[in-house]
């Protein structure tokens, strides 16, 4: 796999870099630091002087960025070849664009907590990348002591296909146990009290169980032991409840990309999981 680790000046990015110890040795590993250099904005200063100031700031930020990349490389397992990249631009846009251009399979990032209001309005860099990238994104909020148990939440055939495709790349260093969870979200209304509604619910639930069983059977042929589970309820709430009961080392969930980094909209299951879970989350596409 081709893996990109986003590095900034927080300890969270170094926690993310250390999480690579649980992944299979990648065919390509890139450490990327985005230089968000402020544009010249000095109306009282001559343009030539403003440009000189800009160049000085960019030079200093490059030097700091190189030190960060070298430090991040030093925490990686010996023997892994590492590319160090510095790119100018807004971090989320740089990461998403670079990953797409270089055909990266997995972006690995630390996860910084924000206040609920600020996170909803602007999003953290990691949440914006997870929302907009066309690649799988692993967000790591805290140190990962191990990676043996995974909660995989699948909504439909598209999610299931992407999950199976991801596992076929054998991304993890050790075999993992996977619980395949599908959540049946039934609409509310008067129909629930009508004659025959219980039979319809039972048919829908059996269909969801069969779906989870098929995905688990296919995953069990790859590198893991997979167990199917079907539940009824609100998807994000059920996934979080199941995570508390199962205590997985990682949550995997499907995500739908957006075309441009914009403020978040409420309602995305993957966004709610990222925002509310303290566990590492891998969004797959």
Structure commentary:
The chain has two domains: 1-145, Rossmann fold (3-Layer(aba) Sandwich); 148-248, HUPs (Rossmann fold). With 285 residues, it is of the alpha/beta class. The chain has helices spanning 11-18, 47-74, 91-101, 116-121, 125-132, 157-168, 197-219, 235-246, 269-276; strands at residues 2-6, 28-35, 83-88, 106-110, 136-140, 149-153, 176-184, 224-232, 250-254, 281-284. Helix 3 packs parallel to helix 5 (125-132) and helix 8 runs parallel beside helix 9. 41% of the residues lie in helices and 21% in strands. Residues 113-122 and 257-267 have low confidence and may be disordered.
Task: Profile the largest sheet.
Answer: 10 strands, mixed
Anisotropy-based shape = elongated
CATH architecture of the largest domain: 3-Layer(aba) Sandwich
Tell me the domain tally. Answer: 2
Helix proportion = 40-55%
- Look at the helices and sheets and give the structural class: alpha/beta
Rounded mean pLDDT score = 84
Give the CATH superfamily of the largest domain.
HUPs
Bin the strand percentage. Answer: 15-25%
Computed over alpha carbons, the radius of gyration is 21 Å
Main-sheet strand order equals 3-2-1-4-5-10-9-6-7-8
How are helices and strands ordered from N to C? EHEHEHEHHEEHEHEHEHE
CATH topology of the largest domain: Rossmann fold
Low-confidence stretches: 113-122, 257-267
Number of helices: 9
């Amino acid at each position: 796999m081709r893996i990109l680790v986003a590095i900034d000046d927080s300890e969270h990015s170094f926690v993310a870099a250390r999480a690579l110890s649980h992944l299979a040795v990648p065919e390509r590993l890139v450490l990327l630091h985005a230089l968000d250099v402020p544009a010249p904005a000095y109306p009282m200063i001559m343009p030539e002087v403003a440009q000189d100031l800009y160049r000085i700031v960019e030079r200093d930020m490059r030097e700091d960025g190189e030190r960060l990349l070298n430090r991040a490389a030093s925490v990686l397992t010996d023997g892994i070849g590492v590319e160090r990249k510095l790119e100018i631009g807004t971090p989320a846009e740089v990461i998403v664009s670079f990953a797409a251009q270089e055909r990266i399979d997995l972006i690995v990032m630390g996860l910084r907590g924000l206040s609920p209001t600020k996170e909803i309005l602007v999003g953290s860099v990691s949440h914006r990348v997870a929302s907009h990238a066309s690649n799988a994104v692993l967000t790591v909020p805290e140190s990962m002591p191990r990676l043996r148990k995974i909660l995989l939440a699948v909504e439909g055939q598209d999610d299931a296909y992407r999950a199976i495709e991801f596992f076929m790349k054998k991304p993890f260093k050790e075999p993992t146990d996977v619980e395949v969870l599908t959540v049946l979200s039934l609409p509310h209304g008067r129909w629930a009290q009508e004659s025959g509604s219980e039979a319809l619910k039972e048919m829908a639930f059996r269909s969801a169980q069969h779906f989870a069983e098929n995905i688990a059977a296919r995953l069990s042929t790859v590198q893991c032991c997979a167990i199917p589970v079907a539940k009824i309820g609100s998807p994000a709430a059920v996934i979080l409840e199941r995570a508390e009961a199962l205590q997985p080392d990682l949550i995997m969930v499907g995500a739908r990309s957006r075309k441009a980094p914009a403020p978040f909209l409420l309602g995305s299951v993957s966004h709610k999981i990222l925002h509310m879970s303290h566990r590492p989350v891998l969004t797959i596409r």
